[in-house]
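Section 5.1 Outputs to date
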Amino acid sequence: MKLPDILLLSLSVAFLIIGIHQIMTVGLGHAYWAIMLSVVLFFVLTYRKRK
């Protein structure tokens, strides 16, 4: 894995952890942005790997 791939994976995991924490504290509605950003970053990573 190259540096951009590692950064994408790390950011995806970080936003997932932030989203889980936000879900537990304030609810899903306020944490939706972090979960979706994590999913988008993961999709970008898988797209880059297939290309």
